Amino acid sequence: MGNFIVSARKYRPGIFKDVVGQEHITLTLKNALQTDHLAHAFLFTGPRGVGKTTTARILAKVLNCEDRTSDFEPCNTCSSCVAFNNNASFNITELDAASNNSVEHIRALIEQVRFQPQQGKYKIFIIDEVHMLSSQAFNAFLKTLEEPPPYAIFILATTEKHKIIPTILSRCQIFDFRRIQVKEIVHFLQEICTREGIEAEEQALHVIAQKADGALRDALSLFDRIVSGVNKAITYDDLISNLNILDYEYYFKIVDNLLTSNTSEILLTFNEIIKNGFEPDIFIMGLGEHIRNILIAKDPKTAGILEMSDGLKKRYTEQSKNTPSSFLLTALGVINDCDVNYRMARNKQLHVEMTLIRMAYINQTVDAFQKGTASAEKKNPRLSEPFPIRPKTGSIAPKVEKVKEKVEEKITPAPTSVEIDKKIAEPKVNYKKGKLSSKLKKSYIIGGIGSVSDEQEEQTPSKLELTIQNVQRIWDEHAEKHCSKMVQSTLNTAKLSIDGDLLTIEVANVIAESTIIEESVIFDLIRKNIDAPQLTRNIVIKADKKIEKVVAPKRMMSNKDIFIDMRSKNPLVDDFVRKFDLRPEMN
Asked: Beta strands 495-499 and 502-507: pairing type?
C-alpha cells in the first residue's frame, strides 16, 4: 500500500478558521478564550460529520498552546502543539464511549483526573459518542463532572443529545452544531480540487454536496470515491454513473410530457429508468422533489432557496414559466398519495405508472372544471356574487321596542302598468303539492328583492287570487329555500290566517316576531304574486300553553304488594310457585 490518506483526514481543520459552516461556535469559543470565561465542561451535539470532534481537538490544542496567535488560534509550532499533532500529548485523553461505556472505564478515567498535567496548564478529556454510556456510568461520572480539579476540562461529543440524562446536560455548556450548507461544501471541495490539480464540473460538486446531506465527512468520502474512478477529471456524467444517481434530465423530460399529456413517452421513459436499475419509489420521490423545485422557481423571491448550480437553477426557472401553478399543486398531492400507498401496493411499478397517467391529465381536468364553473356563472350570475353577510346588530332590546311600535305594517302594492294589464291575459296557474309553479319560481328568481325592470314585468304572469292556500304556498316555498335554519324554523312554526284584506301571523314570542319583520323579502314576494293591493299584515304573539303532567306520588311497595302485582300481570306465577314449592315472603 502507498501513503494515500483519505481527504477527511488529510484536510481535517487544524485551526478554528478552517472549520466549515460552524462560525457561530468557533467565534463563541474564541471570545471565551479572550475573556477567560472558559467552562470546565462542554457538550458538542449535532449530526454526523459536521466537525464536533474536530472542534473539540482544536479547543484542546489551543488551551495548552504556549504561543497563541492574536486571534486565539493554535500556533502549531510550540512543543505542545507539535506533540498533539503527532498524537503524543499526555495532557489530552480521548475516550470512545461506544466501546468504553461501562462503570469500570469511567472509574479509570476518574483516576486519571487526579494527576496534574505534566506539561501545559490543562488536562483535557474528550469523550466521543457520550450518549452510549450506561446509566451507571453516567451516575459515576456526575460528581467529577460537576466539581473537577481546576486543571481538568471535559469535552463531550454526541449525535443524540436526547439520550443523555438531564443531570449531565445541566453540568455542561451545550453547543449545537448545524448541518453544513450545500454551497459551503461545494466551496470546500473546489479548494481541494485546486490543491490536488483536479478538474471538476460545478454541477458534479453540487450533486456530491446534496448527496452528503449536510455532512462534510460524507462529502469527502464521496469525493475520494469519484476521484479514484475518473482520474483527475470529475464530470457530471461520470458522477451519476459511479454513484448510481438518477439523472435530472429524466425529470425534465417527464414533466414536459406530463404538460402535453403524452402518456406514451412518459411510460417509455419510466420503463427506461426501471431497466437502469432504479426502484420505482426512488423515482417517485425524485419526481416530487423536482416538481417542488419548479414551484419554488416560479417566484424570484423563493428561487434563492434552491441549492444547485446557476445553470441548473436557470433550467428550473425556464420550465416553471411553462408550468401552471394548478398543475404543480395538484401533482404534488397525487405524488404524496402515491408515496403513502406505495407500501400497500402489490404491483409497485403499475402503482407508479397509474400515478403518472393521472398526472398526465391534470391540465385537462382543471380546464374542464374551470369551463364548467364559467358556464354555471353565465347561466346564473348570482353564483359569482359573494355570499351576503348580514351586518352585526347590537342589543335586542331596541329591536323589541321597534317591533311593538310597528305591529301593523302595510305592504305597499307592486308597481303596475296599464298597458301590461291589457296585453296579458289571466292564465290558469297549476300547482304541484306543496310547491310553487315554475312560472312563479321564475318570477321570484327574476324579481329578487329589488324592483322589477320593464323586460321582467313583461314576462311576469298575472297575479294570484288572495286565498290562504296561495299565501301558504308562497310562504312555505320561501322557508324551504332559506339558508338559515333558525329563520326556516320560525317561518314553519308561524300560523297564517286571512280575514278580508288582513293577513294575521301568529308567532310564539317576541324574537320570532322580530325575525319575521326582518325577513321582509317574503312580503315582497307575496305582494308581487297576490292580487290584493289593500293587504295588510298583523303579527300576533300567542305562546303555547304548557300542559303540566300530573304525576302520582310514588310509594314504597312491600313484598306482598310486589307479588300480588306480578300475579295480576302473569297468571302463570301461581303455577310456578306450586311447581317449585316456593314460599314468597309476605312481610
From this structure: antiparallel
